[in-house]
Design a protein that fits this description.
Blueprint lengths: L19 H8 L5 E3 L2 H8 L5 E5 L2 H11 L5 E3 L5 H13 L1 H32 L17
Parallel strand pairs: 1-2, 2-3
Helix pairs in contact: 2-3
Amino acid sequence: MLQIVDRPRHVYLPPVGLTACETKALIGQCEFFIAMRFHPSIASLSQSIPTLALSHSCKFAGLHQEVFGHTRYVIPYNDITIDSLLTGFSTLLAEKDSAKRHLDARIPQLQSAARYGGQLLWTLMSSAGGRATVPQPNQTEHQF
């Protein structure tokens, strides 16, 4: 990959073995992010980093549709070529400022919705008398 990049010093390949927190912190230093794995894509988008997704799963299109309202920054796996990468990144680069502003506004809305979902779940579990059970791998049930 570094051999085909015009400016290889601008591409960083992190060391193997970083923790999740270290990885998210490293991702947070990026101006742009290209992701082929789902959780790093979430880590970049959640930090308002414009992200190009190289999608091997329909989850990426769903995520980008939810976050952006479109899938222009998603390249399906079978369509990945040097040309599609250049086109996808050029689109993201041209829309960088608007994508960043959109993420700055949208991510707090999604975080708020997630917290609200957690509150609803807590309310439902509490209204069940605190006796909600969830099967555990090493136990038949666990009380909350």
